[in-house]
Amino acid sequence: MSQTRRPPIVGRYMQEEVALASRNCGMPLEALRYDVTPAGLHYLLVHFDIPPADAAQWRLAIGGLVDRPRSLSLDEIRALPAKTLRVTLECAGNGRGQMSPRYPSMPWMEEGVSTAEWKGTPLAGLLAAAGVRHGAREMVFRGTDRGFDRGTEHDYARSLSVAEAMRPDVLVVYAMNGQPLLPQHGAPLRLVVPGWYGMASVKWLANIDAVAEPFGGIQQLASYHFRAQASDAGIPCSHMRVNSLMTPPGIPDFFTRRRLVQAGPVGLAGRAWSGGGVQVARVELSVDGAWRDAKLDPVAGPWAWRGWSFGWEALPGEHVLSCRATDANGAVQPTEPLPDVGGFGNNSTQSVAVSVRA
Q1: Alpha-carbon separation of residue 218 from 102, 149, 159, 210 (angstroms)
Q2: Mean pLDDT, contiguous 10-residue spans, the chain (358 residues)
Q3: For 186, how many CA atoms within 13 A lie in the half-sphere containing its CB?
Q4: What residue ranges define each of the domains in the chain, with the CATH number in brackets?
């Protein structure tokens, strides 16, 4: 298999992109009405295949530069102190399908985001019990999903710095929305790294290793980097960029998804989020280019999206609605996608075409 990077595409979608879109799924935007996304509506990205997994036989091995290597069963992990967190996860490639030229991969439009309540044990407790040695630089997390990417056969694996892995809200998870993990969401065990793009939350977690050198896995070095040009060294994707979405108003046209609403008062609503534990401080709504402040819901937690609402007096005719968020650090969504050869981190403002009938 060739290790050459796939060239960017302008125009029609390739058969391979359509096949990826059929395997994976985005969250229907009407599901933004839920504070917590139902498990069956949560966005999904599976890099290779959903691997076979027997919960009764599953073991999580912790090794490498540790004083006390461990191998724990699922029951042993469930017996440890537990924490439940409401966490918004977004795919780093969310919005790739809106970019031109675009990188041939999963052609997300804007549906690659969801929020769930994840239950598990803090990773920090597991690492403390194993005794991570002073010389360790990173923790490597390896799933059992295996395949080829860029010509290299590998298990999906990612790493975090030891300091990042020891954050108290990084969880080794076994339940989602009050139920055991579903196979497609990483059953029986996965990592959840709040505030980061979803690639860090390794599914089907089987091995954790402390290492002295930066991890050189293909999903760490060859992918998931922001690059304006292919020749750039790139900046690793980590914390989610500030973003927002609108629940589509009215009813849709089947093919174009253009919205139809009745003239008069229309309630608009949606969700906004940012990464790294930074809260959303402002959401604005635009009707045909005129921006006005929306009303923010109370904060739902340090890692969860924030609801917003806006009352629109809809006049007959054709309109374009947009929303944009600003976070507490002052970061604002751009109106156009930032250049990125891999299609990562597109947090440009959403636009919704609406026909208003009298």
Answers
A1: 21, 8, 11, 18
A2: 67 92 96 98 97 97 98 98 98 95 94 98 98 98 96 96 98 98 98 98 98 96 92 94 98 96 98 98 97 98 98 98 98 96 96 97
A3: 30
A4: 15-236 (3.90.420.10), 243-357 (2.60.40.650)
- For residue 118, give the nearest of 68, 50, 47, 191 by alpha carbon: 191
- CA dihedral (333, 320, 100, 216) in degrees, to 10, reads 30
Cβ(228)–Cβ(343) below 8 Å: no
> What tokens appear for 187 in the block?
């059953």
Contact 327, 242 (CB under 8 A): yes
Q: Please state, in angstroms and rounded to a whole number, the distance separating the CA atoms of residues 74 and 55.
A: 7
Residue 182: burial class (beta carbons within 10 Å; 0-12, 13-18, 19+):
middle
Instruction: Specify whether the CB–CB gap between 298 and 336 falls below 8 A.
Output: no
Evaluate whether 123 touches 116 at the Cβ level (below 8 Å). no
| pTM across the whole model | 0.95
SS3 state at 32:
helix
Which H helix or E strand runs over 124?
helix 123-130
